[in-house]
Amino acid sequence: MRRFLGFLVERKDYVSLILAVIISITLLSSDESEEIRIIRGKTNDVLNVLYSPVQWVRDINILKRENEILKATAVQLKLLNSSLLNSKYENERLREMLEFKRERRLELIPGRVTSKGLSPVLNSITIDIGVREGIEENSAVIGIDGIVGKTVNVGERSSIVQILHDYSARVSVKLETSGGTGILRWRDDDTFEVWEIPKAIPIQMGERILTSGHSDIYPENLPVGTVTGVINRPEMLHKIIKAEAFTDFSSIQYVFVVRNLSSE
Amino acid sequence: MNKRTTLLLGGLAFILQFYLTEFMTIRSLRPDFLLIFIVYVSLQHGSFAGVIAGFSLGLLEDLSGVGSMFGLAPLSKSITGFLIGKLQGQHSRMNPLYFHATWIGLILFHFVFYIFFRFQTLYETSPEQFFLTWLFSAAYTLALMGLMQIVKPISEIRLID
Fold this sequence. Notes:
The structure holds two protein chains of two kinds.
Chain A: H1 2-10, H2 12-29, H3 34-50, H4 52-98, E1 104-115, E2 124-127, E3 140-142, E4 147-154, E5 159-163, E6 171-175, E7 181-188, E8 191-198, E9 208-211, E10 223-231, E11 238-245, E12 254-263
Antiparallel strand pairs in A: 1-2, 1-12, 2-5, 3-4, 3-12, 4-5, 6-7, 6-9, 7-8, 8-11, 9-10, 10-11
Chain B: H1 3-20, H2 33-45, H3 47-63, H4 72-85, H5 96-118, H6 120-125, H7 127-151
């Protein structure tokens, strides 16, 4: 026994490496376990407080710029609002005519981005709302311009959001005019790809991409991005669309969490 | 550099990573201050300290928020810490060119490992783009490592076991 312990101490670098690898692989495989979720949630609540000075500096820097953008957006929205009101009345009339009573409602909870993680690759953000505000795991997170991602870990006062930049993030999407549906995933930088688009579907450049609604997480018709290119090789069974997201993930400051979807 | 100083510098590396990465993000990629610290610790204190520093800082990195693959950072950083730790005290014995090429190569290996898991989709669809992403992310951290040579050259690290 003494010799064995001596051997372990002598080879402590190898022993520690083996232990570290075993623990890391266990963590990787138990990513979804309840204990890990609780630990991540609690740690995130603490780190969220530490991040407040950065938030303060960032807020001052962006306030002026944001104000200008908001003014311009307000004017644009006023113009858009009048046309949307017309469309709304028209839509209501048509719904009545079709006796289409099912209505979908989104309950949005505003949150503020407090941190963007320490990882060398941006793949998550932390927001300052959690269980106390009624946030649940696997809730869609959207920004002003479009979808951002989904909550993967919810703490008492903060939540980790897996953004679309994460390699494992997938969203079922549809093309607004051509109607094709596919699976969106991140490629690199601000480029995304939509897979599984049938070859027969004619794609238009600049066409809007929306969520398809074939998901328990993302409601239908949330704006995602626009088509920037098409990969259509003869050997491929489907087309792949190159897309650009509406959301600027590097400068995102505020988001909305979709609490639930209710049907009436 | 005693244990207390090492711990303080580890804390400093964490603070730099915690507060500066957001402002230093280029094309979704950030520098890795934690890795730079692990390289120095490993070269000075050896593989055991490299594994401990790599695992604990990697765990802290993942706890601070990752979208998926919780555990990847401690895994990659502890392996890198172990391998770089094997270079402890080798500067005076090895050809300096080989010595520097080896630790740079190990950092490049670290990023191959990390980027491969994070950019699997890109690897499948566009290997050239994957290669560029890997090169850029590694170069970003290596550039800061280069700047660190002005403050504390690796060749001047004294061996502490």
